[in-house]
Amino acid sequence: MKEEILVSGRMNDLIDPQLNIWHWEIPLYLFLGGMAAGILCIAAVYYLRGRENDYKTAVRITPFLAPILLVIGLLALFADLRHKLFFWQLYTNIRLQSPMSWGAWTLMVITPVSFIWSALHIKDIFPRWDWKFEWLNEVESFFIKHKKILAWVMLVYGIILGIYTGILLSAFNARPLWNTSILGPLFLASGLSAGAAATLLISKDKAERKQFARVDLVLIGIELFLIIHMFMGFLASTQVQIDAVNMFLGGPFTMSFWIFVVILGMIIPALLEFLELGRFYIPVIVPAILVIFGSMMLRFIIVYAGQVSRWLY
């Protein structure tokens, strides 16, 4: 009798039966990082266009949220690490083929840049601010002199960070729902939309609020286009990807996705912003909060649904 031994890795830790190994920390980090990227990109674009004095909140005030969001996101990411004491090893080399390496080095650049940009405008919030030490005044003068270069760095790395939050997921070929190139642009558009909503929430200038209501309307339109394009791509693909997208088209994530992300996070705020542009009075806090909420729910639902999708049924 000929015997064969079959060796399987399905019983390895965190494979079966526990499929969801990414919990709230990862989507929270993706949301906060994406929103911070959107805020910084918007500030950089309007500064480089010479519109800093027209849109002071977007360029000078809203970016103060970015370092706070990045620090909280990094803490959430650190909390998710299984071997926390070895995080520094990400910075001992650069692996261009690794999304994790891209993310680690991007955060290494964009986080201090966000602090520097905020420090350059701290006197707009606290007019009596004094750095007290002469060397700090010299550092401030140096960055003010090279502010345009700083804005370009902030813009480029902000775009990389916004796209990276989607690429981090799409690099996982084993999860059919994540395995699409649309996630990068979708998460970037969502982060920009959340950044525009943050300016809407903070700004007291009527003209600035109207401008960013228009910007947010365009970004919401782009998000809806990308979602439709992503779903159509899945439906025209293999059976496993059709099964993955069917989770949103009658499956377990249908209600949460279409209500929290599409209706509450996109369609209703878009209608409210359109009415506001049409001279109807709409409390600006309502569409802004809904957009930010929808941006967060997009990450949470995509992360959790992606872990359910799989090649083996």
The amount of helix comes to: 55-70%
State the helix count: 12
Overall number of domains: 1
CATH topology-level fold name: Formate dehydrogenase/DMSO reductase fold
Strand % is under 5%
The dominant shape is globular
According to CATH, what is the class? Mainly Alpha
SSE topology string: HHHHHHHHHHHH
Strand segment count: 0
Q: Work out the radius of gyration.
A: 22 Å
Which structural class matches the secondary elements? mainly alpha
The CATH architecture can be given as Up-down Bundle
Report low-confidence residues grouped into runs of 5 or more. none
What is the CATH superfamily classification? Formate dehydrogenase/DMSO reductase domain
Main pleated sheet: none
End-to-end gap: 32 Å
Q: Average pLDDT across residues?
A: 85
Q: Can you walk me through this structure?
A:
By secondary structure, this protein is mostly helical. It has a single domain (25-82, 94-308), classed as Formate dehydrogenase/DMSO reductase domain (Formate dehydrogenase/DMSO reductase fold, Up-down Bundle). It is 68% helix and 0% strand. The chain is built from twelve helices and no strands. It has helices at 25-48, 56-61, 65-80, 99-120, 122-125, 134-145, 147-170, 183-202, 206-235, 239-245, 254-277, 285-308. Helix 1 (25-48) packs antiparallel against helix 3 (65-80) and helix 3 (65-80) runs antiparallel to helix 4 (99-120). The longest helix is centred in the last third of the chain and has 30 residues, at 206-235. The radius of gyration is 22 Å and the shape is globular. The mean pLDDT is 85.
